[in-house]
């Protein structure tokens, strides 16, 4: 596209008000990102904005275009839906941060903790997760031992903590081996243990002080 055509199309978008036409421009991957972003910034249809962020992850997928759509999203249920969808972690956590409805925010953070791809995203969600029922469910059923450990330190329900303390080794005791290597010839195996019952015991003691 020549420079003249670029400015011509940009000005045309700036004057456009028809939401369907703006949606078609925003979705058009053959256009320059700047033109598509300009179209997104004029969109008011919340469902269309959510569609661009979520459904068009590949086709629509340049960062600036999708970020512009996410920035304009205010619908709480749509933001929660994005946060709960298995897609790029960045978009999920940023959508969750925009949710002001506490119940929906907690729902979003639970989903991120359970199936985000990156540990950093999970830990960021855990910082925001306060729903004790959700935390208890994760503490008792999550597969990842480190997530369970972190969640237990956020529990305030003493009955749940007591149940964990009285739980079985099979459910709460982890043992694993790792090879420590200094070089190709010098190495040794080290055994690690993590007892989540002890984590719960320390948390319960902390709450009773």
Describe the overall structure:
The protein is mostly helical and 209 residues long. It has helices at residues 3-15, 19-27, 33-40, 46-54, 63-72, 76-84, 89-97, 102-115, 119-128, 132-141, 145-152, 158-165, 169-172, 196-208, and strands at 173-181, 187-195. The chain has a two-stranded antiparallel sheet with strand order 1-2. α2 packs antiparallel against α3 (33-40). The longest helix has 14 residues, at 102-115. The chain is elongated.
Number of helices: 14
Rg over CA atoms: 24 Å
Strand order of the largest sheet: 1-2
Helix content: 55-70%
How many strands?
A: 2
3D shape: elongated
The mean pLDDT is 89
Residue windows where pLDDT falls under 50 for at least 5 positions: none
Give the strand content.
Answer: 5-15%
Helical/strand content category:
mainly alpha
Span between termini: 69 Å
Largest sheet report: 2 strands, antiparallel
Order of helices and strands: HHHHHHHHHHHHHEEH
């Amino acid at each position: 596209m020549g420079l003249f055509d670029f400015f011509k199309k940009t000005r045309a978008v700036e004057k456009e008000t028809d939401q369907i036409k703006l949606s078609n421009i925003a979705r058009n991957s053959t256009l320059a990102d700047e033109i598509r972003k300009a179209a997104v910034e004029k969109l008011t249809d919340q469902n269309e904005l959510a569609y661009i962020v979520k459904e068009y992850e590949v086709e629509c997928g340049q960062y600036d275009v999708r970020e512009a759509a996410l920035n304009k999203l205010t619908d709480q249920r749509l933001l929660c839906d994005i946060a709960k969808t298995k897609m790029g972690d960045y978009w999920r956590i940023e959508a969750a941060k925009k949710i002001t409805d506490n119940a929906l925010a907690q729902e979003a953070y639970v989903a991120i903790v359970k199936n985000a791809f990156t540990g950093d995203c999970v830990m960021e969600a855990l910082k925001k997760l306060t729903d004790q029922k959700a935390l208890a469910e994760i503490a008792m059923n999550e597969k990842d031992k480190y997530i369970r450990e972190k969640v237990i330190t956020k529990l305030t329900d003493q009955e749940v903590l007591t149940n964990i303390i009285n739980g079985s080794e099979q459910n709460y005791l982890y043992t694993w081996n790792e090879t420590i290597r200094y070089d190709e010839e010098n190495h040794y195996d080290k055994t690690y243990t993590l007892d989540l019952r002890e984590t719960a015991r320390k948390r319960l003691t902390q709450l009773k002080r």
